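The passage that follows is intended for readers who have already worked through the single-chain material. We present the inputs for a multi-component assembly, then the predicted structure in tokenized form, and finally a short commentary. You are encouraged to pause after the input and sketch how you expect the pieces to fit together before reading on.
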Amino acid sequence: MEVEAVLLIVVFVTCLLMDVPIAFAIAVATFTAILALGEVSTEQQVAWKMAEGIESFPLLAIPFFILAGNLMGEGGMAKRLMNLASSLLGWLPGGLAYVNTLTCMLFGSISGSAAAAISSIGGFMIPEMKQRGYHKDFSTALTTTAATTGLLIPPSNIMIVYAAVAESTSVAAIFMAGVLPGIVVGLLIMAVCLILSITAKYGAGDWPGIKQLLRDVVWATPSLLLILIVIGGILGGIFSATEAAAIAVIYAFFIPAMHWGLECISQALHDKTLYEISIIDDAVVRSRAWLIKMPDILLKTGKTNAIVMLLIGASQAMGWFLNFEQIPQQISTRLLAISDNPIVILLIINLVLLVVGTFLDMTPAVLIFTPIFLPVVVKLGMHPVHFGIVMIANLCIGLCTPPVGTCLFLGCSVGNTTIARVSRSMLPFYLAMLIALLLITFIPSLAMWLPALLEQI
Amino acid sequence: MLTLLTIITRILTRILECVVILAVAMLAIDVLWGVFSRYVLGNQSTWTEPLATTLLVWVSLLGGALAYGDRSHLGVDYFVNLLDPDARRLNRVLVQLFVIGFSLLVMVWGGWCLVAERLASGQIVQGLFGLPRGYVYLAVPISGVFITIYAVAQLSQALKGEKTTFDQDLQEV
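Having made your guess, compare it with the prediction:
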């Protein structure tokens, strides 16, 4: 390997160990490497690649999905979805565990953020489960793992990030490819819950009755419709992923208004009398309370977006260098020299990603390792869309493991427990995620069947 | 005690925050207008996409500076936390020096050269009323200046051995 490439790795790893923000670590390492290459005006080159990497219309979907997710988190959507899941599954033995999983899948799908799912759902579900006799560490471990399914079930920001760096990957195709794998992970988590619920003798809730179920379906409809609009709109070619994300923003903005409308209607039906309080006054008070939250929501979105975008910009600069030096080709040759058996290579790549995932957050890991590993697996005949799903499913595990696990940390703080105590409860869930990862890796049709059916590939 | 540096950073933060809030809102309205003009008015305005990508560059770079100011960029703090307090402080100083060097050299100087070159070449953003392309990239040196200021503020905190983060300072106001 050339000296510049070694320099890149050494500088990058040193920066990481020193806790330099990863976006800067990537940019500094790339800068040093290009400098060593003897390019003229390196400063300008790196500055240009960073800005140019961000200047892309497809990437715009990212701030919009972040904004939509923030609006939904504040707009009281998690509770409606939870009520629906509770009516559907709460009456089974160990029911609340399934309710938790299903809510995470639904909410994570709509908001596309595992962190938002943990804080919105965990905040409600963990205390609720504790009250009904579920062990706190079990509920925390469950919420932490279940929340990651939202990253596989579309719409999902990490998939847009992947599509930005992977060749010949459309956002629509990878969105569709994530559906079944996401459901598989969810079902395996539920299977763990089933076994643990039987051994721990967790009780069942009451069957709420068909009337309550229907009521919860109606209440959850505004939230569920959003998935339909976003996914349907993209698949139907009505709008691009970016536009769909913008539509999700405006829709999420009006969700509290929809809930308010439903409330008015149900009140009127229930009392069989006219709504007593002045509806207009009520509307004014509520919209003021909602609008006053907007600056904070927009600012939070701007910052979260910037963190992702700087990473993308820096990674694009690094990607340019890697390609210039033909590093992916060299790694590919070396890996294929070990074995040309796709199963062995995929196991090695998965193992590397599992280790990487315990230290790196998901977005930088995807941005750094996609350009390196994708050429290898494409050579083995794997579709880039399939590899994207494998990578995301793999790195989801890293989000839940120490020493660096964003979801685990957040879950522990929401569940008010410690990593040491949760770790034992996590073990069966790690196993479930690993099994899911193997299934997703070695059964390509799990990911590829739906996009092929919908003619997205 | 309020030093000149903290006063400057606070004022800059407020300004940056307002700009980012407005720009994110404008982004959403701009893209929604694109969809609206296509389906309702029958032909899509040509300026919505280039305006959106230009705004995205600005929002991301200015927001990136803000995120640097409140230390919310992703990093791996696991290994640093294993060090003893003195070594950790030394490390903080080194990291800030690193970032100052990078943002001055690449973002401010490199970015400025980039802007000057693009302005001189007369390139424009397609479909955006002849906006010179250099102005899109102007976000890079400006963000670099802000990041440098924040890094200097954090450097002085690290040198003084203060534990308070800039974020906590803000909440006291």
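Commentary: The longest helix of chain A spans residues 294-325. The radius of gyration of chain A is 23 Å. How closely did your sketch match?
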